[in-house]
Amino acid sequence: MKRLKKYIKHNLHFFISAIFCAVFALSLDMFNPKIVEMIIDRVILKNNMDLLPRLLLFMALITFSRVVLGYFKEYFMDLGGSRLAYELRVDLFEHLQKLPFSFFDRINTGELMSRIKEDIDNIWFTFGFGLVFFIEQLFYFLIASVILFSINWRLTLIVLTLVPFIGYIAYKLERENDEIYGEISDQGVRLNTTAQEDIAGIRVVKSFGREKYEIGKFFEENRKIFELNVKQAKIFAKYFPWMDFITNISIALTITLGGLWVIGEKMSIGTLVAYSGYVSMIVWPVRLGGWIVNMLAQCVASLKKIERLFREKPEKEVIKERVEIKEIRGEIIFKNVSFKYKDEYVLKNISFHVKPGETLAIMGLTGSGKTTIVNLIGRFYEPWEGEILIDGVDIRKIDLKTLRENIAYVPQDVFLFSDTVRENIKLGKEVEENVIKKALRDARALQFVKNLPEGLETIVGERGLGLSGGQKQRLTITRALVRALIGSAKILILDDVTSALDMETELYIQKALEKYHLTKIIIAHRVSSVKNADEIILLDNGEVVERGTHEYLLSLKGRYYEIYQEQYGKYVFMEETV
Ligand SMILES: Nc1ncnc2c1ncn2[C@@H]1O[C@H](COP(=O)(O)OP(=O)(O)OP(=O)(O)O)[C@@H](O)[C@H]1O
Q1: Domain 412-489 is in which class?
Q2: Which of 21, 65, 369, 530 could pair with 73 as two cysteines, CB 3.0-4.6 Å apart?
């Protein structure tokens, strides 16, 4: 709520202007029944046609002013609400960018999407329409009530006895509707997530013949939302006729009792017509009262959900006292590092030392903790125990920007943005053409990029649709090499990147990488990818079980030797049989 005050303050002038226009316009509205009264009583009944042009002119003036005021009211209201939603959305998105991996491990994308879109839309709707509408209806009710009392307080008291009934029905309707609205909104998130996951994973769906299952899943979610919509329609059907019934009774009561007053010559016909005009002005705000309260409640609920996201702690730039590092050389030291995501340790007592320009290779079964080690180097997670040093400085003392700028990371999961090949390589940096070309050549991607319909300017589809696995992989390697070439990265991390490449391409890239003076951490399953490393560590269940150079590990005749035998044995066998 405190946060909301900031956005309201920024846009207060728009809201005040909108409220001013609304109140001014509705004050003018109050004249209309009065003019009708004068037309009936003075012009028609007294046959005084001289007065008519003046009254019609006055009515026209009111109508015209109403149009102008209505325009400005809408304009200021929309501008204020839209700017408020815009500022909130930008701040929320910026905040999300600062949250750690651990946050994204917990939350699902569909839920975040609905915070960014639907919840902010709720707030936008309340401020861009609802609040001014609420104030407008409140004023209609108050002013019209005062006028009604001044015309005939006895009749007004009788009519007003019906108002609580309308209010009660409106309240009941919105209470039931509110519950169902919440369910519809949650179900909407589930429907979106199902559709989004199915479309993103359409290749898996098709190749495993899961279409029928996916259609069934979507059908089920869609059916639930349909049933909730029907339930909501039934609520409306239950309450609206009653509300109309009591509204009509209030009008019938006004006409009947007012008619008696007219017959008894205690009220003129014009006044009765004007009176019923004012009655409808008090009935509508009551009818809409429940809806307005519900809208405000939904806005508060959305604000609370968004506030929960804002309360998530961003990654800390530095945890201990900051150490300014101008240029990183690339020395990496792990000192007894242990880590767990939840309850179980996935890394236990890991220690190694990689000097600038050296290569460390990490091997191990899937799930043994290889990716976790490199995630810790970029401080995407914090170690539970132990210390990680870069150039002798605890990484918690280096600001995140410097640290991550110095790491060129090629992750296991390839991610390409729906943008041009060039942008996917540059990622917002200023990079000269010859640097891009060199990086493409070294990643063995130049030829295939040249063959793309528009070369570097070709737009690759969402997550690189339209490119082969190996082509996508080579673009992500190019991206990392560009970082090294422009001098911002001194450490290169390759997380199982060669798995999608053929042996020849892998060898070519390995040779090209030798020319880069970078500290390299290579995660791989193939002996061919790691054998030239200065040190190879073999992980098993988060622990280092073997370590040393290729030759040393072979001489141990342990696990590494077994892997070697398996891979090279097969390779030799294949060569022999071809
Ligand atoms: N974000 C996470 N939250 C919880 N547990 C995780 C998370 N990421 C990984 N793990 C668990 O930590 C362990 C180590 O995972 P990690 O990704 O480091 O293994 P890996 O050796 O890189 O595996 P692979 O060769 O399959 O890539 C696994 O048991 C995995 O299930």
Answers
A1: alpha beta
A2: 21
- Would the CB of 343 count as within 6 Å of ligand 1? no
* pLDDT tens digits along 463-489: 656 788 888 889 999 999 998 888 778
Q: What is the DSSP letter of 49?
A: T
* Residues forming CATH 1.20.1560.10 domain(s) in the chain: 2-311
β pairing state of 345-354 and 332-340: antiparallel
Q: Is the CB of 366 under 6 A from ligand 1?
A: yes
pLDDT at 47: 84
Letter for the amino acid at 198? D
Compute the distance from residue 422 Cα to the ligand 1 centre, in Å.
32
Q: Is 105 in the pocket of ligand 1 (CB under 6 A)?
A: yes
Q: Is the CB of 371 under 6 A from ligand 1?
A: yes
Lowest mean per-residue pLDDT among 23-27, 100-104, 175-179, 462-466: 462-466
One-letter-per-residue 3-state SS of 265-316: CCCCHHHHHHHHHHHHHHHHHHHHHHHHHHHHHHHHHHHHHHHHHHHCCCCC
DSSP string for residues in 109-151: HHHHHHIIIIIHHHHHHIIIIIHHHHHHHHHHHHHHHHHHHHH
Segment 46-102, tens digit of pLDDT: 888 888 999 999 999 999 999 999 999 999 999 999 999 999 999 999 999 999 888
348 within ligand 1 shell (Cβ under 6 A): no
The rounded Å distance from CA 346 to ligand 1 centre is: 8
Spatial contact of 306 and 120, defined as CB atoms under 8 Å apart: yes
Query: Is residue 341 lining ligand 1, measured as CB closer than 6 Å?
Result: yes
Decide yes or no: CATH 3.40.50.300 for domain 325-406+491-578. Answer: yes
Instruction: Say what the pLDDT of residue 162 is.
Output: 85
